[in-house]
Structures are given as C-alpha cells and as structure tokens.
Design brief:
The structure is a homotrimer of 140-residue chains.
Chain A (H helix, E strand, L loop, with lengths): L1 E5 L1 E9 L5 H11 L5 E18 L4 E7 L3 E13 L2 E11 L5 E21 L5 E4 L4 E4 L2
Antiparallel strand pairs in A: 2-7, 3-4, 3-5, 3-7, 5-6, 6-7, 8-9
C-alpha cells in the first residue's frame, strides 16, 4: 500500500446550495479555498442522480440515471488534481421512499439539501493514469 | 455554497449501549460533553430501525419501519442545535442477512452494538426553517 | 455510552494495492505504522467480496459471497487490538452495475482500486468478549 502522511490545514462545515450540482458545489468550494487535497463526508437529499459503474473488464464507466427524489444517505469522497483541475472523486449511497439503497460513483445530482464536512490537507495530490486499471489514481 | 471554517476541540471513540436508542445515545453524549457542533461516523448492528424519507413534493417525512435485526453498515451524521436542543442529524446504511442494503434518515434504532467516532467543533451550529425545502437547515 | 477522549497522532491518505485484500491491506498498514487505535474511510472498487452478517439470535456470523466486480461505494471502519493483533473492523457499502447496493461487515474483498483516509489516535484500543452480544467489543 502506498501512502502519504498528511497534516490538516483547515476544516469546514458546509451547506450545499439548493438546485446546484452536488459534485460541482464541492469542486467550486475546493477552488475557492484552494484545497489541493482533502476528504469530505456528507448527507442530505437530491432530486436526481447519475451514478457511474466502472466495468472492470471493458475498463469503461457506464452511467445509470435515477430521475427521482432520493435521500443522500451517505456521501464520501476526496479532492485531488486531475488534468490540471481540482476533481472531487465522489461516492454516494442514495435511497428511495421504501428505504432501498442505491450506491456508486456519483457523477452528478441536483442538490435538494446537503450538509458536508470537509477536511483539507497540507499536500498536493495528483492523479495519473494507472496501467492495470486504466483509471486515474493517486501518485503517492 | 455557504460554509464556516471550524477547529476541532475534541475527539472521541464511543461504544453505544446495548438496548439503547442509537440516536438518543448520540444526543445524550452531545449534551454530556456540551458539543454544540460536530460530525460523527459509526458502525455496528441494530435490532430494528425507523427510517424517514423526505417527500420533496409534499415536504413531509414518511416513516418506514424495519422490525428486524440489521447491520449498521455505515452511519454518518452531525450535531447542531434545533429549537433550543442538541439534535443529531443521523443517516444510516443498514443491511439484511443476504447483504441487501437499506438507507436513509435514521429516526430511531435499538442498538445491538455500536462503535462511533465523534469530532466536536469550536462553534455553535444552529438550524432554522428554510423556505424552499421546508427543512431546518444550518445558518452559516 | 462509554467513551474515551482521544487525540490524533497522524493522518494518512493511502492507495490500496491492486489485487491485494482490502482488509489485510489496512491491517498491514496499521502494523507498519504501529497504529493501536484509529478510524478509516475509503472508496474504490473490488472484484469480489465476502460480507458477514451477525445473527443476533444464534450469535454467530454468516458469510455471503459476491464473486463479481463491485464498486466500493463507501467503506468505514476502525483499528484496534483483538487477541494480541491489530484488527481492522471494516464495514462496506458495495454496488452493482445497475446501482443496487449491498452492505455489511466486510471480511474480505480483492482490491481493484482503493483510496483511504486513515486517522490514528494516541491510545490503545482493546477488544474483549462481551457477554450480552457474544461479540468482541471495546473496553473503554
């Protein structure tokens, strides 16, 4: 396992804007606060969601869309740099009125309400192409 | 996105009482330690659960109850003030013996076993009525 | 609720090795960095998974295996000592190509890709047999 020891430089509690995109909100915030590495955790509700599933054989993402109101039961992700821009790698667990859960890599979702804890680190995390997985993974 | 930069004042690892209510345990703890703002993360098992789903059209919560043993696969939430009392906004991902997942806003659940990490902040977070969503959201 | 106030001694961002076992990676890392107590949070993808469900009546774990590619939508867990060894109590929320979620106590999973945040505490957490649940719970 590759790793990097980090120190935290700042911590934030955030309220996502109603009607905005969940992931874009996080990336704009990272830009605004110049967060080059961090982790975030959140909860709330969304009005739709596009979840990506990585096909490990074909090494491509497939999108599934859920055009419906959903609880954001749990959101976990991190901020790092990809192709010169800050990227919020965002995973989400969503749920329906009957309690059944959906989950995966969150590409987009319209915020109904959202609460976030963000923790920024004193380092610069960069993603680069990884051969075995064809994903952009951290260089540590 | 509205936000507030915070500093952490204290951190705790906790063991929830067998037979107690999951959310009440967290709120009692927040009262005992005078936590006015914080985030928490947990895992364990429960013996039943009441999950709420917010109907974004009707702007009301609907309850779904699961009177059965469930794993608490992941619990994420925060502490802030609502109507003069400390409130633990608690989301949960639960699962059944076959591994299928349930998730949502956790109103109550009887603790079978529970482990928690709590992080308290040096601020006072208050909830107030939000017009567009009819929810009690943070004033930041 | 029993609890212990802790201070953080170190924080890490980690990249799990492709092809390794998810939980063993965390336990090896805890050994390498001499982490005697901590919490971790992660996301990524796995190629299979063995989830355990604790039968609260029979007080025994039952295993369910998912021999398929899955997203690791969210992983949450902690490090403490059990029977003289570091143990990573690991819970996971996994998902399938159609977005449906699986969750529970993660015994093992082959890492396809994995990103972790680990936070180590300045304490020694020990598990011991708990009579009412027949589980190994923290002595706090």
């Amino acid at each position: 396992m590759d790793y990097r020891e980090v120190d935290s430089t700042s911590e934030y509690v955030c309220r996502l804007d109603h009607g905005a995109d969940w992931r874009e909100e996080i990336e704009s915030f990272a830009d605004e606060r110049a967060i080059d590495a961090g982790f975030f955790y959140g909860l709330g509700a969304v009005q739709d969601a596009e979840i990506w599933f990585y096909d490990q054989q074909r090494q491509e993402y497939d999108a599934v869309t859920f055009p419906e109101p959903l609880e954001m039961a749990a959101c976990m992700g991190n901020v790092s740099h990809l192709d010169g821009e800050r990227f919020a790698h965002t995973h989400a667990v969503l749920s329906r009125p009957d309690g059944t859960a959906l989950a995966g890599h969150l590409n987009s979702a319209t915020v109904f309400a959202g609460e976030l804890y963000v923790r920024a680190f004193d380092t610069h995390l960069e993603r680069a192409h990884d051969e075995p997985t064809d994903l952009d993974l951290w260089e540590l």
